[in-house]
Amino acid sequence: GFSFWRRWATLSRNKTAKLGENVMKFYNQKVCVITGAASGIGRACALALASYGAKTVITDIRKDMLDETTELIKNAGGAVDAHILDAADRDGVYELAAHVEKTHGGADFVLNNAGVAMGAPVDELGIDDFNWLMDIDFWGVVYGTQAFLPHMRAKNNGRIANISSVFGLFSVPEQAAYNAAKFAVLGFTDAARHDLANTNIKVTTIHPGGINTNIVRHARLGQGPDAEAQRQEAIVKFEKFTMTQPDKAARIILKGVAKGKPRILVGPDAVYMDIIRRLFPSNYLRFMPFPRLDDK
Predict the structure, then answer these.
(1) Mean pLDDT of the region 112-128
(2) Residue pair 171/179 in contact by the 8 Å Cβ criterion
(3) Residue 175: which of 116, 218, 114, 228 has the closest Cα?
């Protein structure tokens, strides 16, 4: 009995090692574009891709943090091309795509990751804040997909991965804008996947659960006098809710993308929540204890 389990463990380790090798080979020398690479999932994916031998093209609007990502990649011996870019700037995204085509021969993989958050009940949701979030979280994904798709069409090969959220699978209080954007990402990405079904271009929707990132630190949480106190409280609550570190999330994402998966759930909480919302399509919130971003 013991020898059987020892053999099984050895086979399992070998299989995991081989899978890791295959993932590294898949990305080696590939031109990989990552938006929102200054921190969190974006930075973790950029660092992992560089370690796999990819040529990384990274973007963000926060120069100081993007510079940190650039230095981390360079210090590890990786190849990096960094650009300050607002994902909501359509012209800027298309200019980046032209640069990538001219300089690197086109993109092989695009990860549309840039995103922001905000918390407000529907009746307090300002249209300017709503548009700000949609411009980044949804239109940024559309621009990133359409700008780089011609590179992949020319080669009839490539990967496009768009970050939705578990909040793109079900809705929660005080997240009307974020839910709307993330549901839209799912709908858009699934439609793109169907449009490209007869090609070698694979399209993936990614649904992270609670990942320990800076998204709440940069969220908009209302304009009242206690807004900053609410933010600090939300950060504490969010950190309790997170179950997965960005580097682990990056490994899950990059393995799934390499395999051409149409959908990736990131973290055990994402898997749990997906099951619950299927079993209880109307009253799933009873089984999902998570914090609001804007608790009063």
Answers:
(1) 93
(2) yes
(3) 116
Residue 56 CA to residue 30 CA, distance in Å, equals 8
Q: Is the pLDDT of residue 125 over 60?
A: yes
**Residue 226 in contact with residue 218, Cβ under 8 Å?**
no
Q: Who's near 69: CB < 8 A, 6+ residues apart?
A: 37, 38, 39, 42, 43, 46, 47, 58, 60, 80, 82
Does the active-site annotation cover 178?
Answer: yes
Q: So what's the pLDDT on residue 4?
A: 62
Residue 101: CB partners within 8 Å, gap ≥ 6? 107, 151
* Beta-carbon contacts of residue 201 (< 8 Å; ≥ 6 apart): 149, 152, 153, 156, 157, 158, 159, 160
Q: pLDDT by residue (tens digit) across 240-279?
A: 555 688 999 999 999 999 999 999 999 988 999 999 999 9
Name the active-site residue from 52, 143, 178, 284: 178
174: left (phi over 0), alpha (psi -120 to 50) or beta: left
> Which pair of structure tokens corresponds to residue 149?
């798709």
What is the Cα gyration radius of the chain? 19
Number of Cβ within 10 Å of residue 140's Cβ equals 29
| pTM passes above 0.90 | no
Does 202 or 229 have the greater pLDDT score? 202
- Alpha carbons 60 and 116: distance in angstroms, whole number: 12
Looking at residues 85-105, what average pLDDT do you find? Answer: 98
Work out the average pLDDT over 203-231: 63
- Residue 222 phi/psi, 5° resolution? 100, 170
* Confidence check: pLDDT of 144 > 70: yes
